[in-house]
Design brief:
mainly alpha; phospholipid biosynthesis; Phosphatidylglycerol_P_synth; transmembrane; lipid biosynthesis; transferase
């Protein structure tokens, strides 16, 4: 397994750590963060989530720079993104920080695209993420990070940035999913 794929696997392995921390088993209490109360566990979980998300850029950079792009990496990279994002979104719904119906839309799209990728892979075609998919991923990361931080950064100016960011992420999630299916409709047209 090459270095980019190891970095991708590390993103997957950070998910259980994120989950343990976000549920605050150590009862760390609250902290002042930019003038607002924020659970310490959510702050640490946000840092873990942001770090794990940044590994997406790092693995891609090394894979392209050193010509280490593999089919395994093309499969694992979007899977790692989907697992990390889905875990975080489900936690945010449980804590009442994200609307469940928006999260359902996002996760359904992720399952649908993963299914399409599996069908394509069965036909010998492995498709890397396109720019729209990358925008979708980064808008999701921004929204989740802001929600984990309880929108404290923008609370001082009364801007519901985290909620707006989640709507933007949902928009790009739907658009990129539609684009992915439209570009690969031949799978369904040619099937019997």
């Amino acid at each position: 397994m090459n270095l980019p794929n190891k970095i991708t696997v590390s993103r997957i392995l950070l998910i259980p750590l994120f989950l343990v921390i976000v549920y605050d088993p150590f009862h760390w209490g609250d902290m002042q963060f930019i003038g607002a109360e924020l659970p310490v566990a959510h702050f640490i979980a946000a840092l873990i989530f942001i770090f794990a998300s940044a590994t997406d850029w790092v693995d891609g950079y090394y894979a392209r720079k050193y010509n280490l792009v593999t089919n395994l990496g093309k499969f694992l990279d979007p899977l790692a993104d989907k697992l990390l994002v889905s875990a975080a979104l489900i936690v945010l719904v449980e804590f009442g920080l994200a609307a469940s119906w928006l999260v359902i839309i996002i996760i359904c799209r992720e399952f649908a695209v993963t299914g399409l990728r599996a069908i394509l892979a069965g036909g010998g075609e492995v498709v890397a993420a396109n720019m729209l998919g990358k925008i979708k991923t980064w808008t999701q990361i921004v929204a989740i990070s802001a929600l984990l931080l309880h929108n404290t950064i923008f609370e001082l100016v009364s801007l519901p940035f985290a909620d707006i960011a989640l709507w933007v992420a949902t928009f790009f999630t739907i658009w990129s999913g539609w684009d992915y299916f439209a570009k690969n409709k031949q799978v369904f047209i040619n099937s019997k």
